């Protein structure tokens, strides 16, 4: 799976630059137009942030973890595994909470939030498959 994060960020910067040239950076539909974040959105973004930090920590420790001569003891490896699994479980619990919250919404909001959940779950699955 290809990571398109840098491409997306580049497109956002280009769009922001164009909006500044047009003088419409703060207009409706501009990138800087902010809506107040709902508790659902805050929790979903928090889950994405935690998943990203788990990924970064796993990648940072990967070399030492896999190298038998790195100086990490089995106890150190077990601590790393337990911490990572606890954080992944917390993400799963948060996703269940979000899913339960979605069930109490109206159709249009429910559809939108189900799509957000699907994307966050796909991100979690993609990061845990490595």
From TrEMBL:
Keywords: Coiled coil, Membrane, Protein transport, Transmembrane, Transmembrane helix, Transport. It is a single-pass type IV membrane protein. Signal peptide: none annotated. GO terms for biological process: protein transport; retrograde vesicle-mediated transport, Golgi to endoplasmic reticulum. It is found in: Membrane. GO terms for cellular component: endoplasmic reticulum; SNARE complex. Belongs to the syntaxin family. PANTHER family: SYNTAXIN-18. This is Uncharacterized protein. The lineage of its organism: Eukaryota, Metazoa, Ecdysozoa, Tardigrada, Eutardigrada. The gene is RvY_05910.
């Amino acid at each position: 799976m290809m990571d398109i994060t840098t491409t997306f960020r580049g497109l956002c910067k280009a769009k922001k630059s164009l909006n500044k040239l047009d003088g419409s950076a703060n207009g409706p539909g501009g990138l800087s137009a902010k809506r107040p974040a709902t508790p659902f959105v805050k929790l979903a973004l928090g889950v994405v942030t935690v998943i990203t930090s788990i990924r970064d920590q796993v990648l940072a420790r990967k070399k030492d973890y896999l190298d038998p001569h790195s100086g990490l003891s089995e106890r150190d490896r077990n601590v790393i595994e337990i911490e990572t699994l606890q954080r992944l479980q917390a993400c799963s619990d948060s996703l269940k909470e979000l899913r339960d919250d979605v069930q109490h919404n109206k159709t249009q909001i429910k559809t939108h939030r189900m799509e957000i959940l699907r994307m966050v779950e796909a991100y979690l699955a993609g990061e845990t498959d490595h």
